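Researcher: Let's run the pair from yesterday's discussion. Sequence first, then tokens, for each.
Model: Starting with the first of the pair.
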Amino acid sequence: MAELDIRPSGITIIVIRGPDDQDMRLPGLFLEVVPNRRLVLTDSHVTAWKPSAKPFKTVSVTAFEEEAGTTRYTALACHCMREDREAPEKMGFHEGWDVCADQLTDLVGTICPAHETGESVMPANFVWYELMTTDAKAAEGFYSKVVGWKAQDASQPTMNYTLFLAGEIPVAGLMTLPPEACSAGARPGWVGYVGVDDVDACTARVTKAGGVVHVPPTDIPNIGRFAMAADPQGAAFAVFKGLTEMPPPAAGPTTSGLVGWHELMAVDGEKAFGFYADLFGWTKADAIDMGAMGHYQMFKAGGDAIGGMMTKPAAVPMPFWTYYFQVDAIGAAMERLRQADGTVINGPMEVPGRSWIVQGVDPQGAMFSLVSTTA
């Protein structure tokens, strides 16, 4: 509960209820008010500038800054004495503010329109994956052997195209890089498509937020409309709107061939999350402390976590997305990978959630990842 008169010298009364159902009443005054930018208040004085008997924080500063299409919220509390600072720390205020901010983000996402452009209020999820490579036939054989996909021709008059299926479920596509793309420096790689309601409006927001559109909104006859882009830090992704309603992403952590995780190595993980949160409505899930490597921030698209992102190590030359394909067992899949002339670059490694992962490069040079609940 709170009573706020938001103007310089205006009173503020905040009531905090603890887990024991006891209320703590915190009166104070606003010292500075800068609309949409900054609030400074003190509890060292109360109404009519009367000194407080025992200030809780003394001075607090709340700042709001625009960042990659989102708002960075910063709260700073200044205390008179060290013991005054340590008391709220022991009460869990640091962790509590983080939890409250995440809960507020999730709540706003459920009750407010995501964008004035008419974009769906539902968070956008990955709906397709595509490998563009220099030797499609060789790649078809490699992934059929390693992941266990079934290949199915889906070519059109002007383009050869292959579908990868997990059982009867279409999961990904395969095509040859055009010569002009190779001449421009394109290399084999996987790209993930995020399903959106309006490709044109979405790409306009990409540009406004500092991203780059590599392939402008383009129609695929009888299929839908897509665009390819890169975030402000350079990681590539695509957006897609089908002519028919896209089914929800197939789930099942033990089903071989499905995509089980999406991972972004960014130049700045926090800024990258801000970009994608604004663009697709993603919200934060748990974060894992990686020690000197920083934090691994998992994210959600309306349900359970679907991926994670972090600031890349300095040794990694550029930001990128990687997609984890589920396999029967990591050890067996890694052996198939090597037998098919692929290269293991990381793993096998056990990760939180009792899963095992391997990261590799296929014979044409495209990076990919594998995940399994079985070692």
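Model: Moving on to the second of the pair.
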Amino acid sequence: MTLRILSGSENQEPEGILDDFARERGVNIEMEYQGSLDIMRTLQGETVDYDAVWPASSLWLTAGDTQYRVKHAQSISITPVVFGIRQSLAEELGWAEVGRSFRFLLVQPRHPGKIIGALGFNEIVRGAFQSCFVSYKIDAALWGRGYGSEAIRYGTGWAFRVLGLHRAEANVMPRNAASLRAAEKAGYRPEGLARRYLNINGVWEDHIHMVKLNEEEYHA
């Protein structure tokens, strides 16, 4: 019996251990290594000629397995991986609407592994407004370590410097203390409560407007 596995290149090191384990059970393993984006695109294809897939992160299963071919998925670790992507490719993949939104994957470069969250600058409005809405998410296993506030702070700085925005706004439910704290530590300040502002899981929820202004404009 031969098991064909499509794997991310970061899994080359434990291949020997996997081979020994398989041989003891009378199974032959054939590993083919691809980059994460290539794995995602393979899953999106009409046919997938593999018995198993082993990407760097479940993100690539979520983004690529649109036909739900993967029947049994199991996460084996929570560690980040460095990830970069050209803007043109991000737009092609639907991760960045031209001029209107930018999305980033959050990582810990000093610990190769899996992605730990996401950060987005959405609904960018130009003209007299020059503003955007900010969204962010961190792996629950890593809450309370300052990763969220660090990502928001540096990401917002990028949006001000590169996109030339005047204002960034994050809308947070009052009971989400961790998210409010992350935004506040990143320099965002509350500007009021919007009643029944967004529909979350079928319920119109109140949200606090957390806002940061581009202070560099006032020191130019």
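Researcher: Give me one sentence on the second I can quote.
Model: The helical segments are 15-23, 36-44, 58-64, 87-92, 147-162, 177-185.
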